[in-house]
Amino acid sequence: MSNPGVAIIGVGQTVVGEHWGRSLRDLAVDALLSAIRDAGSPRIASLFVGNMMAGELTGQAHLGALVADFAGLRGIEAVRVEAACGSGAAALRLGCMAVGSGAADVVAVVGVEKMTDRPAAEVTASLAMAADGDYEARQGLSFVALNALLMRRYMHEHGVRREEFAPFCINAHRNAVGNAHAMFPFPISADDFSRARMIADPVSLLDSSPVCDGAAAVILASVDTARALGRRAVRVRASAVGTDTIALHDRGDLLELRGAVTSAARAYEQAGVKPADIDFFEVHDAFTILSVLSLEASGFAKRGEAVRLGLDDEIGLDGRIPITTMGGLKARGHPVGATGMYQLVEATLQLRGEAGANQVRNAELGMTQNIGGSGATVVTTILEAVA
Amino acid sequence: MNAPHTWRQQAQRYLLEGVQCTACDHRMFPPRAVCTECGAASMRPHRFCGGGEVYSYSFVYHPPAGHEEFAPYPVALVRLDEGPLVAAQLTDVATDDVAIGLRVEMVTRRVREDSADGVIVYGYKFRPAIPPARR
Ligand SMILES: [Zn+2]
């Protein structure tokens, strides 16, 4: 089922960073109220909150009611949505279902994560909950280690060197410079990349997105309602979830990223478009290897060849397929359950022509892909500028 | 990790016990109720032999809570001789000897720090296979 009639009519986001002075609820309410203002303050019927680890890291569950309460929306329908690092876009998917089905007129979706209240080892252990708890995490495999297993195997099968992943990090940091909400708005050199210390060999610090806090939100309405409200709308042409085995070791083909193949294929079908029609692509670059696998699974490169897109500078703002146009997870930051919503806010800004120095020229069709775990949940969204 | 949680996985942790599909004979680890090959929901226990080879590997420098005392440590996806991949730590191996294709065998080791309730968590790790002549 496509969502022909759903539009994004407002967006909001907090700066991504280590917000020692701000709580989970502060961040969520900040992003949500910004989005509601941006939408012209319509009456909100339902709220979906995307979040992964509030229970483990801040001792707080029940985020639907919490955020509704503190945002001054007491009484509305509100629930939390969890799909590991894919929680943000998964929440958007439910919002689209609510509007598309006619169940709700105007829907708010906010993604939020507060990661910096706990010590690093606890955050690492909580992130590993995205994997198979008994057969990956409790064997001592961190989430970084799982991505390292993917990267090592990719390098082995395709004869790729570690240095060849550098363009994905360099591009993300270059684009973050122009994003006032980014955590790391500074450039990185190829030398920096080769010298970076290892987190889980061959994944280095500069292959990895940071632990941080943030929240981002959008307001959804039917295209008709958007028109009635007189808002600048960006249309949701597709929103599709695909799943795969929770554990890496249960994949028939480790490097295929089946969940992304399925999710992207469903999104292309809903929108009636193909990869060549997409003007920019917000990939889930939690690790450089995920950018590579995501580009291949989504049809932008053949198997084993996505590294070339980076080396040939096809991923920059003027390239064939610009990715991570506002810094991506690597340099804007990866507040896990909020990430999918940051991607959607950024894509909306691109399609409204409000991306400033990072504006992709003639951007009409943008795609985002939000990945939960090592690819067990993948949410692909396609947005279109509406004239 | 609490006592019941550790206790109920003894067969997996100590014996590498998975399942075999009674319809198509496909073998899986860990156990699951529905066959990944044919969809049948009829399984019998199957104990894996413990031999295999390294399919991919990494070294963990920033361990999750409960594994700090062992860091850095090697981890791997091991392709078992019967087919499935299993995720586990490697042990008794020099860093430079870890490689894709390395023959390994399952051994029982402490897999994480002892839990607060005193449970010592043993489980499988893999070490370089000792050739038959040296056994
Ligand atoms: Zn079967």
Describe this structure in words.
The complex is a heterodimer of chains A (387) and B (135). Chain A has 387 residues and is of the alpha/beta class. Chain A contains 14 helices and eleven strands. Chain A has a single domain (1-387), classed as Thiolase/Chalcone synthase (Peroxisomal Thiolase, Chain A, domain 1). Helices cover 36% and strands 18% of the residues of chain A. In chain A, strand 5 (198-200) and strand 6 (203-204) form a beta hairpin. Chain A is globular. The model of chain A has no long low-confidence stretch (mean pLDDT 96). Chain B has helices at 3-7, 10-15; strands at residues 17-21, 27-28, 43-47, 51-60, 73-80, 85-89, 103-110, 122-128. Chain B has a five-stranded antiparallel sheet. In chain B, strands 2-1-3 form a three-stranded antiparallel sheet. The termini of chain B are far apart. Zinc ion is lined by residues 21, 23-24, 26, 35, 37-38, 40 of chain B.
List the helices and strands and how they pair.
The complex is a heterodimer of chains A (387) and B (135).
Chain A: E1 6-13, H1 24-38, E2 46-50, H2 54-58, H3 63-70, E3 77-81, H4 87-100, E4 106-113, H5 120-127, H6 143-158, H7 166-176, H8 190-195, E5 198-200, E6 203-204, E7 214-222, H9 223-229, E8 234-243, H10 258-271, E9 280-282, H11 288-297, H12 306-311, H13 328-332, H14 339-351, E10 365-372, E11 377-385
Parallel strand pairs in A: 2-3, 2-4, 9-10
Antiparallel strand pairs in A: 1-7, 1-8, 4-7, 5-6, 8-11, 10-11
Helix pairs in contact in A: 1-3, 4-14
Chain B: H1 3-7, H2 10-15, E1 17-21, E2 27-28, E3 43-47, E4 51-60, E5 73-80, E6 85-89, E7 103-110, E8 122-128
Antiparallel strand pairs in B: 1-2, 1-3, 4-5, 4-7, 5-6, 7-8
The structure holds zinc ion (ZN).
